[in-house]
Specification:
alpha/beta; Rossmann fold; binds S-adenosylmethionine
């Protein structure tokens, strides 16, 4: 069987790459040893030396979890087609969304997901709300959502019933870890549990990183995650608008989907020149007229757009955009 052998640090990114291109062999398991993750692939798709042919003993033909769920769940056959083929798993906690028609069967469905996916709790996800981006959930199996999710060699500890984790932002978190920020002073204005701060601190060599978070619950996990990952970060429990940092940072991270009104505060924190990673939610028309919108937002400064990127669809007609700008204050 043909496997792609990838360094653990790059494994998450490669997994996404393989999934996106449908290159993973569906009938064989991914496995790992101390240093590498081995992905079963359908064929040799490039000339790298990372392909290895491994025979016999680790060939585990397995049933897809979704098929197992459908097979095991005790509800009417007619209803099974409504069971979602998609869920989020963070450590040993699973989040799913269910259509209305399955609501009365949620406990049976929760128990089946828990059994097949080996989860200690299953949460019915109903959206996200408020300034702290708190998830609205209902336990449909178990009663404890404290978990440790491992991504890109990083441990994220959090309570999934109280704090969000966006699987859709995985590329951004990985991108942060690949940034060369050697010797820089960085401010993460919306640090949460350390989504961006920890990859930056762990892999990008900043001189100092200040991580600001307003929600005390997230802040406490941020502190735990700093210790868990053994990184050097200065956490700050505060509204970033109240932080007295002026002309301080080489780089400011604005990892919040409504960060438009925070631009003046980011500029204040930035040195005479530096980089801003700006996230926001834009209407489609704004995306089409991006140059004009960016000019309206940053026109008082000298700026250069290093990268414009659509992270994901956020809501109907609304997109999560990320813009990296090199700024010079004039
Ligand atoms: N970028 C993250 C990712 O990779 O998934 C998601 C965004 S994170 C949930 C945004 C964080 O900003 C939340 O933890 C929220 O409590 C925090 N926050 C919101 N307003 C804030 C403010 N004014 N000052 C500091 N933190 C704030």
């Amino acid at each position: 069987m043909l496997y792609l052998r990838i360094n653990k640090r790059d494994a998450e990114e490669k997994r996404k790459y393989l999934l996106d291109r449908k290159l993973l062999h569906p009938e064989f398991s991914i496995f790992s040893d101390e240093n590498f993750v081995y992905f079963p692939v359908k064929f040799k798709f490039d000339n790298s030396n990372d392909f290895v042919d491994i025979d016999g003993k680790i060939r585990i033909r397995k049933k897809k979890p979704y098929d197992e769920i459908i097979e095991n769940v005790k509800i009417d056959n007619d209803l099974k087609k409504f069971i979602p083929n998609h869920w989020e798993k963070y450590g040993n906690v699973v989040l799913i969304q269910l259509p209305e028609v399955l609501y009365n069967y949620r406990l049976e469905i929760g128990a089946t997901f828990a059994k097949v996916l080996r989860a200690k709790s299953v949460l019915l996800y109903k959206g996200i709300e408020g300034e702290f981006r708190r998830p609205r959930v209902e336990f449909i199996y178990g009663d404890d959502a404290l978990t440790i999710h491992i991504e890109n060699g990083i441990y994220y500890k959090f309570d999934a019933s109280r704090i969000m984790f966006s699987s859709g932002n995985v590329d951004e978190r990985i991108r942060m870890s690949k940034m060369d920020a050697t010797g820089e002073k960085i401010v993460d204005m919306f640090a949460g549990i350390g989504y961006f701060s920890i990859p930056l601190a762990k892999y990008s060599y900043p001189a100092r990183l200040i991580a600001i978070e307003k929600n005390e619950e997230s802040y406490n996990f941020l502190i735990e995650n700093i210790k868990l990952n053994n990184v050097s970060i200065d956490p700050m429990l505060s509204d970033n608008r109240d932080v007295e940092l002026k002309d301080y940072a080489d780089r400011v991270i604005m990892g919040y989907v409504h960060s438009r009104e925070f631009i003046p505060y980011a500029i204040k924190m930035l040195k005479h020149k530096g980089i801003i990673h700006y996230h926001d939610t834009w209407r489609k028309e704004e995306v089409w007229n991006r140059e004009e919108v960016i000019k309206n937002l940053f026109g008082d400064l000298q700026y250069y757009v290093m990268r414009f990127h659509i992270v994901k669809n956020y809501a109907p007609n609304i997109m999560h955009v990320n813009i990296d700008l090199r700024i010079r204050k004039v």
